[in-house]
Structures are given as C-alpha cells and as structure tokens.
Amino acid sequence: MTSDYKEAVKTAEDYYNSADADAFYAAIWGGDDIHVGLYESEGEDIAEASARTVRYMASKLDLKPGTRVIDIGAGYGGAARYLARETGAHVTCLNLSEKENARNLRLTAEQGLEDTVEVVHGVFEDIPFPDNSFDVVWSQEALLHSGDRMRVLKEVARVLKPGGDFIFTDPMKTNDIDDTHAYQPIYERIHLPDMVSMGFYQATLEGLGFDTIEIADLTHQLRNHYARVREELQSRCHALKHQISADYAERMLNGLKDWVEGADAGQLRWGVLHFRKR
C-alpha cells in the first residue's frame, strides 16, 4: 500500500459529497447509519439491521459518562448519537464529507446531543488530536477506503490511551486468496488497488502494541446486507428517480451485485474486530 494516500482521500471525499451518494444513503439506509447490518430475518428493515450492529459493538465495551470515543469515518453519526445517548460517553465524529457532516450536525442538534457529540471535518490518516486522547476508537466500513491503512492504524495507536479499545468493522479479502483479477470488480468499486485481510489487521495491530480481544467473523452478514440493499434499491429505483440519477442507480446495482457474488465465491470477509492497546 502506498503512503501517498491523498488521491484516495480525494476520491472518497468527492464520492460521499456527491448528491447521488447522499440521496442514496439517506433514502435506502435511512440517513442515520450507513453500515453493514446484522439481520435476523429475510427482508428486514436495513436501518434496524444497521442499528443492531451498533448495539452489538457497543455491548463489547465498558462505556460510561466521561468515556472519550472517536468514530473515524463516522458518516452520518448514527453510532455516535447512540453511544452518547445510551452511555453518556463523549463521542467525536471524524469524517471527510461535508454533506454527511452537515446532516450529522443537524440530527445531533435535533436530538439535543450537541454537548456529547462533536463533528470534526478531517481524515483518519492524520487524526487532528494529541497522543493518548481517547479511551475508544470506533470505526465501521471506513478503513477499506484508505490508500494507506498502515498509516491509519498507526494514528489509531497514537491517539488511543494505554488500555483503550479499538473496535471496528470492515469488508476484507479472504486471508488465503491473493488473486487481483478475482477482486478487480470490487477494487474498481472502492477505487483502490487492494483490500486487506483479518490477518493483516491482527498482525499489524499486535505489532503496534495491541492485544487481540475478539475477532467475530460474521461474513454471512456482509452477503445478507449487500443483497438486501440491492433488493431495496431495485424495488425503489422508479420512486427515487428524481433523487438518484439512473446512471448512479445502475452503477450501484452492478457494484452491489459484485459484492454479493464476491461473498458467495468466498473472496470476502466481514466481522467485528476488537483490540486493546497495551
């Protein structure tokens, strides 16, 4: 992976700031959480499944008033608002999309959580906080968009206090598959030349002074989620034609199909990874 991450940052920023992407995530995901959900039944509401992931992750942590959390790649801030509302933790949302940050600020204000949720425009390759600032670093489906994941993990280690927790989810490639051709449709979808594996995250973080607490492989939920999102978009394309362009919808349907087929082929992994800084 290249240390020149700025092109990947610009690509992700432009994408998540686009009107099509904003309308898609707001309409199909519900505009609160835009992450992979945990499904309990076929055809379940996407927003509820996504919220269940947040609750599951939060249950792994000892959060209380005064706990300082940073969500890197926070999107619309749904996880941050849940953590602040339910535990009293102070949550910083670090995110590179002005559109998402504006919605986050609005929703946070509407819920009266401005004192416990702050929104910071920035990138996780250069986290704009001093060393040992946070008790928890949280992330959902964001790290794959980085052009320098090693740099991100070093930043996580830097801003996290000793004894602090790093918990995250991310779509990953299967450890024992290294076939660029097989992954090409997915790489084109994320506009990057590679993905990493659970093994990469575990080895790298342990090398940076973390202990592995738990790696919950929930790959079947990745398949469930992208299939469910594709189904929802397909069924609502006509109704959303004035909000989401036909070209974007077609590209998204094809891209989601690639993710589903990649999961079916055993090329992808997804789960909740939990590490603690020594």
State the CATH class: Alpha Beta
Shape: globular
CATH superfamily: Vaccinia Virus protein VP39
Please indicate the count of domains: 1
Mean pLDDT rating: 93
Strand content: 15-25%
What is the H-and-E element order? HHHEHEHEEHEEHHEHHEE
Strand order of the largest sheet: 3-2-1-4-5-9-7
- Would you tell me the structural class of the helices and strands? alpha/beta
- Architecture in CATH? 3-Layer(aba) Sandwich
How big is the Rg?
18 Å
Number of helices: 10
State the helical fraction.
Answer: 40-55%
Q: Number of DSSP strands?
A: 9
Gap between N and C termini? 26 Å
Your description of this structure?
The longest helix is centred in the last third of the chain and has 19 residues, at 246-264. This protein is an alpha/beta fold. Strand 1, helix 4 and strand 2 form a beta-alpha-beta unit. The chain has one domain: Vaccinia Virus protein VP39 (Rossmann fold), CATH 3.40.50. The chain has helices spanning 6-17, 19-29, 46-58, 78-87, 98-110, 149-159, 180-190, 198-207, 219-236, 246-264, and strands at residues 68-72, 90-95, 117-121, 134-140, 160-169, 172-173, 210-217, 268-269, 271-277. It contains 10 helices and 9 strands. The model has no long low-confidence stretch (mean pLDDT 93). The chain is globular and about 50 Å long.
